[in-house]
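pinging the channel bc i need a second pair of eyes. not urgent but kinda urgent?? the chain im working w is below, pasted from the shared doc
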Amino acid sequence: MKSYLLILLFCSLNLFAQEGDKVHYRNLVEAYYNKDTKQPLYIYDNINGNIVDTLSNIEAETSWYKIAIIANDYGWFKIKNIQRLPNAYKNYGYENFWVKTSNFLISVDVFEENHIVYLYDGPTTESNRIHKIEGIQPVHLIETNDLWAMVSFKVGKKTVKGWLNYKDQCACPWTTCPKN
């Protein structure tokens, strides 16, 4: 329990952020790397370019890799940085480098008791609501459009796919994210 409180504190307060080194970006979609995958995280210099680094998935239960996304292009994310959080914190940098979009997750952030999260058929709140999500749930990140995230997840045997508003996104697997 003590370690989870520590994680919450680090995720919520940016205590270990340094100059130019943010834990949460309020102007970028962020996602975390799926801990269940055996595939390492490859960082490329360009789309279909050379691999410049290979990060193996972190074995520690309470640590993960998080990316901040600048842009996307047909199965690729251009990144602001990659961070290892929260245990053994490290900012790998790699601004303007690329990663493949597979194996990245966002937690749907139901941060208040009466808060309702919807997926939309387009990246605006004026679009049609296509699915209601109740409770914190990990979803697969497919692409981004400004601060909107195209996500997918399974409900029974059916795959649900839609746009998730920024205010409902969290790149921390175990807690809610600050919204201020």
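so The longest strand covers residues 76-86. and Helices lie at 2-13. — does that match what u expected or am i reading it wrong
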